Amino acid sequence: MTGKDIDLNDIPELDDEFFKNAEIHLPEKQPVTIRLDTDVLLWFKKQGKGYQTRINKLLRSYMETHTKS
């Protein structure tokens, strides 16, 4: 399905008024020291900026998968 195939008639368009009052809520971050295998860390760093965020997303995905059971 492409974007043009999606029916948006029942979804109101978000206007400036909506975004004027919108708030972003991000999860609190806790700085930690973690020991990783050198090759694992280098692989993540080679992916570029945001490697710590990607590591966090993978850990969150693992956590959520294993807490559903």
Task: Write a short abstract of this structure.
This protein has 69 residues and is mainly alpha-helical.
Report on the structure:
The protein is mostly helical and 69 residues long. The protein has a domain at 28-69. 46% of the residues lie in helices and 0% in strands. It contains 3 helices and no strands. It is elongated and about 50 Å long. The mean pLDDT is 92.
Poorly predicted parts? none
Proportion of strand residues: under 5%
The helix-strand sequence is: HHH
The portion of residues assigned to helices is: 40-55%
Structural class: mainly alpha
Could you describe the largest sheet, including whether it forms a barrel? Answer: none
Set down the secondary structure blueprint:
Blueprint: H1 16-21, H2 38-46, H3 51-67
Summary tags:
mainly alpha, 3 helices, elongated
